[in-house]
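so my prof wants the structure for this chain in the tokens format not the other one, which i didnt know existed until like an hour ago. anyway here's the sequence
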Amino acid sequence: MSSDLRDFAGLIAAIRHAHTALFTQASKAVNISLTLRNWFIGIYIAEYELCGADRAKYGDRLLKDLATALQDQHVSNAGKRQLYNYLGFYRCYPQIVRTVSAQSVKLLSPEMLATKVPTVTAQSELSTSLDPEHLLNRLSYSHFEQLVDIDNPLKRLFYEVETLRGTWSVRELKRQIATQYFERSGLSTDKDALARLTHQQAETQSFQHIIRDPYIFEFLGLRPQEVMTERKLEYALLNKLQTFLIELGHGFCFEAQQKRLVIGGEHCFVDLVFYHRILKCHVLVELKNDAFRHEHLGQLNAYVSYYKKHEMTSGDQPPIGILLCTQKNHEMVQFALADMNNSLFVSRYQLQLPQQGEMEEFLRKALAELGVESGGTGE
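here's what i got, hopefully its the right format
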């Protein structure tokens, strides 16, 4: 930048531009270094588990003992859970070995450098991972943490591509996974329109930002729509869930959908209300097209408490609440349910996975738009 330094305003502009440019550059470099550090820890643990002469001595205590030893050595962010995540990161992205610089290659043994990278399967010409260097340059380790939790390679690639296309923040990536953007895209006949709508509403990344389980709805036969928004998906699931529970077993009698309650002058709506003839109680169902949050449980608890006070009749048992969400944080659920007197259950559900061919075609176009190659071909 050729700044005009002949006046005070020009001086301020020049300094601000240099600060922004170099801060961004430094943040990017630090991010890549931290991501690589975590990947190195993962490959070291994997190699030790495979070849360590004294590995049998530690067995299942390996990560716990290692975390304690690293804490004594003042190695930060190396708790047992984090070490487990680093190991998963390496196993999910072994191709990152190809990005290791000449300066860092000495940190790896010849066996580690010979790490085999999965090749493209015969069933598909589309690689299930982007070029690792491109990912490292654009995503933070916190992004990778969300991606590693996705078991389906095509689904993971979908979120890699969409995160890059939309420059999503970690929070936005997490939200899109929780609200099943991949599955909704599969249910949308116009995937490009859904993508445009999603990216228009998404939060972008900045350097300042980090009873039955599961319910499987793949047999419900949700009809494809041109653009399957979160609201449309919720309505579709509610309609199908009503049928699903009625057919689930004896005793479920449907009473209402979007049952309105007036609590302290405030209007609230229960997604589904059933009466169970055998249990002699009301069953309230709340469906959240999102990951579990403790406030969801508080909302359901309020509805169940209202029914207990105002809707129970002679001979009734206390009402039951069922919360359905797309992801279930077991520890958070445990603490959220603690000391609650009402009968509440938290479960998760998942949709049928989209057709692989349709999603591959969508991803080919998205990759072409990004101007990058997918990078899981290996040798």
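also thought this was worth mentioning. Residues 63 and 84 are 7 Å apart (CA to CA).
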